[in-house]
Amino acid sequence: MYASLRQFLKSYRYQEALLLLFVALIALLGFFLVSVTGHVQLGQDPLPALPTDLIPPLVMGFLLAALHLALSLRKVTVDQLILPVTGLLLAIGLTMIWRLRGSDGVWQQLTRGFIPGIFIAGAFAVWPHLIERLRRLAVPISVAGLALQFATALFGRMDESGARLSLKIGPLPAIQTTEILKVALLIFLAWFIEREGREVEGRARTLLAGLRLPAPRYFIPGLLFVGAATLALVKMSDFGAVIILGGLFVAMLYAGFHTRVFGTIAAIGLGLAVLVGLGLALTWEAPAVMQLRFLAFQDPWSQQEIAPGLTISQGPGYQIQQAIYATVAGGLTGTGLGFGSPELIPLAASDFIYAALLEELGAVTGIAVLGLYAVLVMRILRVAMLLPEGQMFERLLLVGIGVHLFTQVFVMVGGTLNLFPLTGVTIPFLSLGGAALMVNLAEIGMVLAIMQRLEAQTV
């Protein structure tokens, strides 16, 4: 008994435990400040409501602690930063959603995204052999992902912009199937490159400048999958997801193939993209939502009429204007949690949560949040680099997860600051969005499962 206790204490993840305690305190402090500020501004006594208001961060802290305990019981000692960094981003996101949407928004985030996502992550952490199941079921998973995407494109719910981004199935809440498609693409490409990668490189023909051309049958399946997914996303008017899908495809090809083979495929892909782009420019009229977003990006304050009595400034440019005003108002240190006006920003809890954060917590906190994402992505890629070459599926899956998180942050933060046209993508762990949060937590669960392979290599 004492020997088992000593072994457990030896493998206990002390650093992770201390960091998660810090995360829980940050979440409790954030909810406390928002609750007290809100009640005081209304002239109410904040003390009676505090016990109820602090339940959400306690639920979050308890479930993160349970996941930490599961890793400790499995005697996993590698990488004690991934879970706390994820938890801190979740704490910041929940606090901002509490500030912007109140109790309803927080419980929606918890019940539709966090709780199911943390249970999926826990399943991967406790049963890491589930990664093998993903490898064996790669084709059915990818087919199911594409089927859901086309069902959404044809029968999904249409929002006010005319885009079909969610699918309602029976009594279940509407889900954003694009998030499922991204994971399906990750799993399919990791499986296909592992399965065919060596033969592709071995049978490739050498061309000019040392570039090597693989036989078409080796890269056509991946192109067909990405092409079909892109068609569905264009039909849905989900152009942000198209950018992310393209980034994932390029990154995983780069990670999976020799540079000379990748260079050839990239050159062919670029040439095809140029031809398709020219064809679309001559024959295809971009959807209205895409045109309006581009006009708003060029000049959010434009007085150009887009409908009788409606200008760009009053319509699609209004969101960007308010996001810019919020960023300027926040300055370096922010107006203070609960003392800004982020509710003036349309969709502040989802698409523009980063602008709301900049206003009330300031540019210093905004930069720190980007630093947290950088740490998270680098730790995931570090695990990928430390895995042996024989575990190509796992390495590629980690690369895909890291790039997925990075591209989401890059696209949405850039759109919020009007560095390029806005797209409707959520920021991982921050934005209000059930399916997106669930998928992102499932990806973290895959990371926690795969890093146990690294643990086995070091024992």
Overview of this protein structure:
The protein has one domain. It is 72% helix and 3% strand. The chain has 16 helices and six strands. The strands form three sheets. It has a two-stranded antiparallel ribbon with strand order 1-2. A two-stranded antiparallel ribbon has the order 3-4. Strands 5-6 form a two-stranded antiparallel sheet. A hairpin with a 2-residue loop joins strand 5 and strand 6. The two termini are 22 Å apart.
Strand/helix succession: HHHHHHHEEHEEHHHHEEHHHH
Give the helix proportion (percent range).
Answer: over 70%
Strand percent estimate: under 5%
Please list the strands of the largest sheet in the order they lie side by side.
Answer: 1-2
With helices defined by DSSP (H or I, 4 residues minimum), what is the helix count? 16
Radius of gyration: 23 Å
Beginning-to-end CA distance, first to last residue: 22 Å
Q: Please state the structural category.
A: mainly alpha
In a nutshell, what does this entry contain?
The protein has 459 residues and is mostly helical. It has helices at 2-11, 14-41, 50-53, 55-73, 82-126, 130-136, 138-155, 177-202, 216-236, 239-256, 259-283, 288-298, 316-330, 353-386, 392-416, 434-458; strands at residues 157-158, 164-166, 205-206, 212-213, 305-307, 310-311.
What attributes characterize this protein structure?
459 residues; globular; two-stranded antiparallel sheet; mainly alpha; 6 strands; 16 helices
Task: Summarize the topology.
Blueprint: H1 2-11, H2 14-41, H3 50-53, H4 55-73, H5 82-126, H6 130-136, H7 138-155, E1 157-158, E2 164-166, H8 177-202, E3 205-206, E4 212-213, H9 216-236, H10 239-256, H11 259-283, H12 288-298, E5 305-307, E6 310-311, H13 316-330, H14 353-386, H15 392-416, H16 434-458
Antiparallel strand pairs: 1-2, 3-4, 5-6
